[in-house]
Every structure is written in C-alpha cells, then in structure tokens.
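Run: sequence + coproporphyrinogen I -> complex structure.
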Amino acid sequence: MRQAGRSLPEYRAARGSGTILEAIARPEVVTEVTLQPVRRYGTDAAIFFSDIVVPVAAVGFGVDVAPGTGPVVPSPFSSAADLRRLRPLDPDRDTPYVLEAVRMLRRELHVPLIGFAGGPFTVASYLVEGGPSRNFTRIKALMHTDPVLWHDLAERLTDLALASLRSQLDAGASAVQVFDSWAGILTPRDYATLVLPSTRRLFAELARSHPAAPRILFGVGTGELLASMAASGATVIGVDWRVPLDEARHRVGPAIAVQGNLDPALCLAPWDVVADEVADVVERAGDAPGHIFNLGHGVLPETDPGILAQVVDLVHRTGRAGVGRL
Ligand code: 1CP
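>> structure
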C-alpha cells in the first residue's frame, strides 16, 4: 500500500516542514516514516520511504520534488549532450543516507523491507517532460524521432536503477519493486520494443547478483502490457484495478505471482462495499503461484486510516495463510 503512511497524522509530524528530498536524506525520519504504516496496520512488508527521482537527483541531474506537484526538472533532457548529466551512481558516496536508513530498518523491522527504483520510462518521462505529464508528448516524440538517443537514455537510467537496487539489497532490503508507473501510456509495440529490453536487462542483472530477492514490476493502466511485462524477468507483476486478477493471471502466465489490485477509490465507500471487493480480489487471485494483496495504486490522501486497518485485518483473516509472505 504505497503512501499508506502519507495520510497518517503521525506522518506529517515526523516529516516536518522541509521538502520531501530533505526528509528522504534524513535516515531517522525515513526509518520512522517507513515503520509507521507497519505499526498501525500490521502489514506483512514495508515499502522503503524514498522517491523514484532520488538516484537522478543524487548524480546532480537537477531535479526537485515540489509539494503538491511531484518531480520538477527546470532544465529538461533534450539532446545527447544531456547524457553527461547522468553519470553512474556510486551509492556509498551519492546516497549514503539511503543505505543507513535501510540498515536501521533492517534492525527495527520484523517484516521484509521492499526497496525500490523507478522504471526507465517513468523516470525518463520526468526528465524529458520537465515534470508530471498528461499526454507524454515530448518523451514519445523523442522515442520516435531519435531511437538511438532514447536507447542511450534508457540504458543510463537502467544503470542508475540497478546500482541503487543492488545497494538497497546489500544493505538489507529483502525484495525490490520497479515502479514503471506510467508505462501504460505506451502502445504494446512501443513498450515491447522501446522499454522492455532495458527492463529485461535490469532484472537479469538483479537475478544474477541477488537470485533470492523477489522482483516486482508495477505500472498503472498496463492491462494491454501485462504479457510483455511478464517477459521482463520480474517474479511478480503488479496489476491495477482495471483488470480482474483472474484475467491478469491469464495474461501473465502460470509462472508469475501477481500483486494488487483493490481500487484505491473504493476505500472511500462504506465498509460493507469495501469488504465485498476485498473478498472478490482474494477470490480472483486464487492460490498459485502467489498473490501479494495490495491496492491497485497508492492510497488516496482522503482515505480514512480506519478503513485500511479493517482491510488489512480482513485480508489476514480470509487470505490463504503463508501464500503472501515474501
Ligand atoms: O511531500 C510529500 O509528502 C509529497 C508526496 C510524495 C511522497 C510521500 C512524493 C512526491 N513522493 C513520496 C514518497 C514516495 N514516492 C514513495 C515512498 C513510499 C510511500 O510513501 O509509501 C514511493 C514508493 C514513491 C515512488 C514514486 N514517486 C512513484 C512511483 C509510485 C506510484 O505512485 O506510481 C512516482 C510516479 C513518483 C513521483 C512522485 N513523487 C511525488 C509525487 C506526488 C509523484 C507523482 C507525480 C505525478 O503525478 O507524476
């Protein structure tokens, strides 16, 4: 349940008034904010508190995260010369605060910690568009006008994600999630030819260095991409609420686990409606080969924390014991 903590009063208190990138650079704040939803809800795993733009910000690309907006890039990526702004990540030097927070969490947590990074398309979209986008016109134009430059950009971002994920696993994370949140804006062919290759390399290299760590790939609106995503080397595919999980299972095939997929907006409905939907998700997920119960995307800020507590409790009572443990 990404951003499960964001709607909590204790989150604002711990985070203070600085920017999110400042909060992310303070290991004791990151540790506290990561622990809060686990404490309150008793979830079976914790998602590390950070952001997908941390590696690009740490190598000095020039990106900030604006309150109420998200990532903003005053000088967007536009030509081959901008590749120089994406030097390799040295996690010990560039993001020591991430590693310290992961180590602190490893000591505090009694459930697995999920480390994460942004997928190549989603991180590139912020760098090329200059911020959040509705139609993703600039990045699509770049992908189709200069596929060689796109390839070089995607490969640089894959190297950054790989270095970051490996460092999080080495510091004590148990699993990784790649958020290619906005990949669903692409045609299946563009995803398969322009994004899947770098994603495959990312997961292949992770499988080589950390074979035991589950690899989750997530995106929104990816119904038509699920079969392609299942060929990425991920061991778990995140599914949003638009595709029922039994149908998603058909699309990803028998060897891959699924994650999801309660509609976050449903958590604003009366409890009996929510309970029916939770039961439906658990039912459709079936048994094999694994289901991580989750929302289909992040928690909406107006969500009542009490409803989320009831959701977690219901899943624990009705889900199949042991199947969902990472
Ligand atoms: O100041 C704040 O509190 C701003 C809100 C916020 C938070 C809590 C942002 C800005 N980032 C984060 C933390 C964050 N980001 C986490 C930590 C775990 C958690 O809170 O549960 C994670 C996993 C992310 C990952 C992330 N950042 C994604 C992928 C996940 C997803 O939701 O699809 C994306 C797309 C971002 C970019 C981003 N950062 C922040 C915002 C508002 C956005 C989205 C902007 C947009 O709509 O394009």
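>> summary
DSSP finds 14 helices and nine strands in the chain. Residues 147-171 form the longest helix (25 residues).
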